[in-house]
Write a structure and sequence with these properties.
By secondary structure, the protein is of the alpha/beta class. It has 22 helices and 12 strands. It has 4 domains: 164 residues, Rossmann fold; 60 residues; 100 residues, Arc Repressor Mutant, subunit A, CATH 1.10.10; 102 residues, Trna Endonuclease, Chain: A, domain 1. A 5-stranded parallel sheet has the order 2-3-4-1-5. The longest helix has 30 residues. It starts with 5 loop residues before the first helix and ends with a helix. The protein binds adenosine-5'-triphosphate and magnesium ion. The site of magnesium ion has 3 residues, from helix 2. Pfam families: ATPase_2 (PF01637), DUF234 (PF03008). InterPro entries: ATPase_dom (IPR011579), DUF234 (IPR004256), P-loop_NTPase (IPR027417).
Length: 461
Amino acid sequence: MFHDRERELEKLNEIYSFPGSTFVVIYGRRRVGKTALVKEFLKDKLGLYFFVSEKDETLLLEEYIQEIEDKLSHHIPRYIKMKFTSLEEIIEFLLEFSQEKKLVVVFDEFQNFKTVKPSLFSSLQKLWDEKKESSNLMLIAVGSYVGMIKRIFMDRKEPLFGRVDELIKLKPFDFWNSWTFVRSRIEISPEDFVELYSALGGMPKYLLYLPRYHKGNALETLKALFFDEFAPLREEGLNVLKLEFGRFYRAYFSILEAVSLGYVTPKEISDKTGMKILTVGKYLSELTNNYEYLAREVPVTENPVKTRRVAYRIKDEFFNFWFRFIYHNYTMLEENPEKVFEKFKAEFRPFVGKTYEKIAQEFVEKLDLGFKPERVGRWWRKGEEVDIVAYNRSNVALFEVKWSNLSLKDAKRILRELERKAELLSLKGRYKFGIIARSIEDKEELREEGFLAFDLKDIIR
Ligand SMILES: Nc1ncnc2c1ncn2[C@@H]1O[C@H](COP(=O)(O)OP(=O)(O)OP(=O)(O)O)[C@@H](O)[C@H]1O
Ligand SMILES: [Mg+2]
């Protein structure tokens, strides 16, 4: 059963309804669900799906001719088997076919044309420029290697620069959608799911391992998925990212590993990796702006451009987990997987705590706070931190997030502490204080006292 992606499908259908030709790029990291999305979109339309595998042009042509025959032959009067001797001829034919009838054409793993036939990008550009006005083709290029896709379409020196009408980045499911995706397939407790989500993130492909691998306990499940000898995700980070970064992947890996271990400022990363601070800066900027694997965060009350308080974070839960616990322990994992797993068990709880902060923030962004926040995020300063601050000109809400079961007494102590921290923030307005934990004893009482109090039950309501 196809799950969610409502916004993406809506966007694609809107583009489909435009008269004339459009060039759409859908990109996103491996396994995020790009192929599933385009296949779902094609279901009720006249469209062709071409997978660009890295083989000879002649072999690709055979496959593509078959697809054309399957989908289009009954739309062509007196059809006789087509002969095409190049990819260009196919593209020209499809552009001409669509002069009479709206047509969708998908090239999946579009970046592979670079190895199949590098000259295709410039011949496609010429054909497109010449024929798009008179045809009705929705051309969709799907790509997995984010850096490569951006180069093909956004680098001025490349022939296809400026030809894309819509660029859609497909992201992993958010927490809520990941939960409903998995819940419709297996019985699982919300507590276990938060722990598993900390390692798998909202990646449909990884979540789909759970029906087979879930052992009724998150730690044992993670052991089978990541730590055992034949664990399916043990090499996954390497498999996905090595191709993305190419020959120089080691430097990128060192940086990502350092960030996953909690070295989050350029200075800390430079000290940890031994790379010069200028080099680190260059890689950080590539990983943030080009590859989009890192997010650059600043305290939520500060100006993102001017502030010098910057921290980097790995956006994808899976990569964060993989670098932190698998890549970091690669050598030991070969020799003594049990030992690595024991070490992991001791460190996993605080790690889940961090993920829960993100889940809580997603929840707060959708919450009715009684005002509309302009910004929502984390705030920190030497030795002090507030997990979530949501504010506008005249209202402020502060939250502490805890991945634990709180007694009423604990909760009150935490809220008092939060009231003290409010003094450190230079925000004016009416303040509200809140707490989001795994569970809270007597949260009703806190609510009656005017506090915001939520636990996992509210998040997955
Ligand atoms: N929205 C969805 N609903 C149900 N299943 C999905 C959805 N998205 C992805 N999946 C499933 O998750 C798996 C990975 O998705 P898919 O192959 O589409 O990803 P991809 O981005 O094309 O990955 P790759 O880079 O490996 O080609 C597939 O088994 C697919 O069926
Ligand atoms: Mg795919």
